[in-house]
Amino acid sequence: MIDAELEPTVTPLSAEVPALEVRGLVKHYPGVKALDGVDLVVRQNEVLGLAGENGAGKSTLLKALVGLVRPDAGEIWVRGKKVRLKSVVDAADHGIGMVFQEQSLVPNLTAAENIVLGSEGPGVRRGMYRWKTMRNLAQQQLDKIGSDIDPLARTDTLTFAERQMVEIAKVLRIEQRTQFAPVIILDEPTSVLESKEIETLFTQVRRLREFASVVFVSHRLDEVLDVCDRVTVLRGGESVGEVAAAGAVPGDLHRMMIGSTGSDDHYHGNASQRSGEPLRPMLEVRGLSGKTFRDVDLDVHAGEIVGIVGVHGSGREDVCRALFGAEPTTAGEVSLDGTVLELSGTRAACAAGIGYVPAERKIEGMVGPMSVADNMTLTKQKSRCNGPLIAPKKQATLVDGWIERLSIRTPHRGTAIQRLSGGNQQKVVLARWLVAGDIRLLLLDHPTRGLDIGARSEVYRLMRELANSGVATVLLADSLEEAIGMSDRILVMSDGRATKEVACPAGGKPTPLDLVKEMV
Amino acid sequence: MTSPVEDVEVVAARRPQPRRGVSLRDAGPPIALVVIFLVFSALSSDFRTIGNVQNIMDTAAVLAVVTCGITFVLMMGSIDLSAPGIMGASAIAVALLVANNRNDNDLGLIGILVAVLLAAALGCLSGLALVLLKVPSFMTTLGVSAVGLGVATLMFAGVQPNISDAMLKGWAVERFLGFAYLTWIAVGCVLLGYLVQRYSRLGRYAFAIGGAEEVLALSGVKVAPYKVAVFTLAGAFYGLAGVMVTSQLSAGLVQAGKGYDFAAITAAVVGGTLLTGGRGGILHSAVGVLLITALTNGLVQVGVSPYWQGGVQGLIVVAAVAAAVVPQRRRNQVTK
Amino acid sequence: MSTPVLATPAADPAVVSGGPTVGQRLTSFMPLIALVALLAALTIADPDFLTQRSLTAAVRTSAPLVVLAAGATLVVLCGGIDLSIAALCSLSTVFFAMWLPDLGGLTALAVVVAAGAIGAVQGLAHVLLRIPSFIVTLGGLSIFSSVALVISDAGPIRVVDRDATKWLTLYVGGVVPMAFFVAVLVVAAIALVLRLTPVQSWITATGFSESAARLAGTPVDRVKVAAFTVSGACAGLAAVMLVSRNFSGSPTMADNLLLPAVAAIVVGGTAITGGHGSIWRSLVGALVITLLRVGLPIVGVPSAWEQILYGAIIVAAVALTLDRSKVLIIK
C-alpha cells in the first residue's frame, strides 16, 4: 500500500479533453446575482489565471468548484464527465482541491497530520496513529513540491510561507483518491507573502504544472501574467474574455475587468454641488501605527470624501477601525476639528461625533431582531429621551422623520430591522449617526456591499448630501470604480503603509489603472 | 511537560532550527508543583513525611480519573459539568450490582463494568444532545448531570446500599508499593488517556477540533461522531471515578461526585489546558491534579479550614483563565 | 448639520420578508400554554388542587425561584450565564442569620446590597479580565459555597428573632402571599425600567451581537456589570425569602435552586444565546417549574424524577429557543 502511494499512477487522457470545464454557471443570492453564466476551461497541465474586481464573482465560482456552493444552474465537467459537487470531499474525489485564502490548517497539529488530514490511509490502523507511516506519507507529499519542512513540526511554529507549502502538499494528497492529475486552485496565494517567498511559490506552481492543472487567482495582475499560461477575466458574474499571458500587459487585463466606466450620474457627480472653496481640515492623522499598519498620514477636510484603496491585507480596514477606537494603536496622533483624540474606545469616538458603518452589516452593523426605531436611536439615545426615560412621542417624530427623509421602506418604525431589504437596513444604520445632528466624521467600510444597483445609488446620494452639509467622510469602497466615482481624493495603501495620494476632482478623475499601479 | 509530538522517533532534522522545544507555558505548572511542595515542606513538618506524600497521591486518585475524562472534552473547546450526576449514578449502580446489603447481586467485576457502561451511556447522551440538537455543551452537560442525579436517586430509593464485595472494598485499602490500588488505577487511567490522546485518531481529532473545527470539516472529516465519542469516553472515566468513590466509602452515595466537576476543570486549567480548546493534554492535567491536591493538603496541614478548598479552587481557576486570556486580549473582543 | 433630503423616492421595493411564522408565534406562547396545560392536568389528577388554599401555597413556594430566575434572566439576555445565583443565595441566608442580631430591621436591605455588590464583582471580573461568564460564575459558585461553609461552620444558624421577616409571611388582601407579591413587584420593576429607558435596547444589542453593540457605542461593559449586580441582589432577596420560611440560614440552603432557576429561564423562552426573551417569560417559567415540583407528587411520580425532568426540560427548552443563525460552531 505504501509503495503504491509512493508512485501515484496518472491515467493518460486524450490531451484535448479539458481537465475542468464550467458551462453557464449561475448563482443567485438574495438581491444579488453572484454568478451570471460563467464559462471557464482549464486545460490539462496548464496554469490558468482568474482575474476580476471584488464582487466579480471569483470567490463564488471557486466555492462552486470545490463543492462549498451549489450553483442554481449550469454545469461542471471534469475530464470530459459532467459532475455534481456536493462537498469538499466530493470535489476531492473528482481531483479538485483548493488552497484557501484564509489558510485551512489546524494550527495545533503537526504539518504531517495536516497534510494527511481526512485521508490518512495507512497512517491510521484500527483508529490508532502510526506516526512513522504518517511522517513518511507527509514526506512524500513535501518531496513532490521539493519542500524541506520538518513534517513533525507543529504547524503554528511554521512561517506563513511554509504553511502555504504545507497546504499545497495537503491539496496534492487528492491524487491518492483519484489516480489522475488533479486540478489545484490557489486563491490569492501571494497576498501576504514577501517577494522572496513569492518567487519560491512561483517555482512551485511551475513545478505543479508538470503533473497537475492549476487555477491561480490573484489581485496582482503582473503576477498573474508572470505565472499563468492563460487568463480568464470575470466581470459582474460573467466571464468577459480570455487573454494569452505571453505578450499581454496588466493594462489589457484591467481594461477587461472594468469594462466601460459607469456614468458619472450614478455617483451623483461632486464638484457641481459643491461651493468650491477649500474647507477647514476636519480629520488630521499623523504617523498612526498599529498591528497591521505603520505610519499612516491622512487629512480629510469638512465636506470632503476621501477614499482609501488597497488590496487584501493592505491594512485599510484596520486604519478605519482604529480611527473609531475599535482597534488598538501603538503610535500616532489623531485630531478632529483641531482637538486631539484619545482613541480610547468606541464610546469616546461616538461622543466626539465620529460615526462608523461596518462592512459586516448583519453581524456588526445592526441588531437584527430590534426594531427600526431602536436601531436608529441605539447610539444617540439622548435624541429620543427626556432625562433618563424614553419619550415615545419624541421618538416617533424623530424616527418617522428620518424614515421619510431617507425614504426608508418599512411597514412601521416598530418593524424588526432584519425584515427590511439590505438597502433599507443600511439606510437605518446610516441614520443612526445622523439623528443627533452632531456627526462630523463618517467612516464607511464597504457601505454598498451586497446592495443592488438601485440601493447603491441611493447610498451614494446620501453620502453626497452629507458631504455637502459639511461632514468629512472616509470611504473604503467596494470597487475601484466606486472609490474613484465618489471620492474627492484617494489614498493608496499597500502593506500597511500609505504609499500615494491621488487627487480625484470631478472632470480630472484618474483611471482605475493609475491606482492599480500604486496598489501592488 | 511534553508537547504532543516531541518524543516521537524522528530522523535527524535537516533544518537548523527544530522548533519543537519545551515552552515556558508547558514548564510552568510542574515548576509550580515543585515550588508548592518545597514551600509546604518548609512550613509544615507533617507535610514532608512519606506518609503524607502517599496520602496526597491516594487523595488525588479519584480527581485524576475525572480529570482524564474532562481533559478530552476541554481539548475540543467544549465544557463538561456532568461529572457529579454521572458519578452519582455509577456509584449507586455499582453498589447495587456487587455484593451489598440491599439485594442478592454479586456480580463483581461485571458489576463494575456495567456501572461504567451506564456512565458512558450518560456521557453519550450529552454528546448526542450537543451534535443533534446543537445545544451548547455547558447546557447539555448541566442537564445530563441532573438526569444522572435523578437516576441515582431513583436507584438509591431511600436506603443507602453498603457494599460487602471484598475486591471493591480492597481497592481502597490494599496497597502495592506503598500506594493504594485506587492510586494505581488512576495511574493506569492517566497512561491510557495519554495513549489515546497521543496515538488514537479520536484523541488527535479531539485536539484538532479544539484547534480549528471548521478546517476538519473542510478536509472532509465528519466531526460529530468524534464529539459524541469524546463525551462517551469522558462519561466512562467519570463512571470509573464513581466506582472508586464507592470503594472508598464502602457505600453508594448519590452525592459521590459532588464538586468533582469544578475540581477537575480547575486541575485541567491549572495544568495548562485552555478552555478555548486545542492546547494541553492528559499529562498537563495530571500535573494540575497533583498541584491542586498538594495545595489543598498543604493548606490543611498548616491549619487552614478544609472548607476553604472550594474557595481556593475558585480563585485559582479564575486567575488561571485570566492569565491564559491576557496575551490574546483585544479591545473590542467579544466575551460571552 | 443641514438635513439631507432625498428628492426621488426609493426605487427599491420594500422587500419585507421573514416575519414570524405560525410555528414561531406558537413557540413564543409555549410557556403560557404549558402553564395552563399543567394547571388543567393537575386539576384533573386532583380536583382539590384548583382551590385557593393550594394555589396560594404553590405561588408562595415559587417566590424565591421567581426572584432568582428574574435576576439571572438579565445576564442571559446579555448573552452570558450566571451559575453562581444559588450559591450566592445560600451565602446570603448565612449573612442574614449572622447579621440579624446586630442590624435588626436593616438586615434584609444589608443582605440585598451585599449580594448585589458581590454580583458586581463577578461582573467586573467578567468584563475586565475577559473571562467567559460561565467560568467566572462557576468560580464564584465554588468560592461562595466555601465562604458560607467557613463562616457558618458548616451548619445551619437558627434565626430567633422572627419579627424581622414576619412581613414576608403576611398576605396581601388575605390571599396573595406577601413573598410572591414582592417577587412580582421585583419583576414588574425591572420590566418597567427596561421598557421606559434605553437599557432594553442596550441589553438586546449586547446579547444579540456584542460587536454590533460596541461599534454602535453602546455601554456594553457597564450594562453587563449592571446585569450581574441585579442578578446578585436578586439572589440576596431570594435568600431573605428563604429565611422567612425556614427560620434559619444555612450554607447549602439554596443550592438545589440552581437547576430550577436555569430551567425557569429557558422554559420561559429566553434564548441562552442572548438577545431574545424577557423577564416576564421567566416569571411564567418559574411558575411552570413550581407547578411541576408540587404537581409530581400529586400525580404519583416519585420526586426523584424531578431531577431527570429538569435535565430533560433544560436541554429541550434550550434546543427550542436557541438562535441557530448566530452560532455556527457549537462547542
TrEMBL record, chain A:
Organism: Nocardioides currus
GO molecular function: ATP binding; ATP hydrolysis activity
Keyword line: ATP-binding, Nucleotide-binding, Repeat, Transport
The keyword Repeat is annotated on this UniProt entry: yes
PANTHER family associated with the record: CARBOHYDRATE TRANSPORT ATP-BINDING PROTEIN MG119-RELATED (PTHR43790), GALACTOFURANOSE TRANSPORTER ATP-BINDING PROTEIN YTFR (PTHR43790:SF9)
Key word Nucleotide-binding present: yes
High-level lineage: Bacteria, Bacillati, Actinomycetota, Actinomycetes, Propionibacteriales
InterPro entries assigned to the protein according to its UniProt record, in alphabetical order: AAA+_ATPase, ABC_carbohydrate_import_ATPase, ABC_transporter-like_ATP-bd, ABC_transporter-like_CS, P-loop_NTPase
Residues in coiled coil: none
Signal sequence residues: none
Domain ABC transporter: 20-261, 277-520
Protein name: Sugar ABC transporter ATP-binding protein
UniProtKB/TrEMBL annotation, chain C:
Pfam families (alphabetical): BPD_transp_2
One cellular-component annotation, GO: plasma membrane
GO molecular function, one term: transmembrane transporter activity
Subcellular localization(s) per the UniProt record: Cell membrane
InterPro entries, per the entry: ABC_transp_permease
Membrane topology: Multi-pass membrane protein
Residues passing through the membrane, by range: 28-45, 66-99, 105-124, 131-151, 171-194, 225-245, 257-275, 282-301, 307-323
Entry keywords, A to Z: Cell membrane, Membrane, Transmembrane, Transmembrane helix
Signal peptide bounds: none
Protein name: ABC transporter permease
Origin species: Nocardioides currus
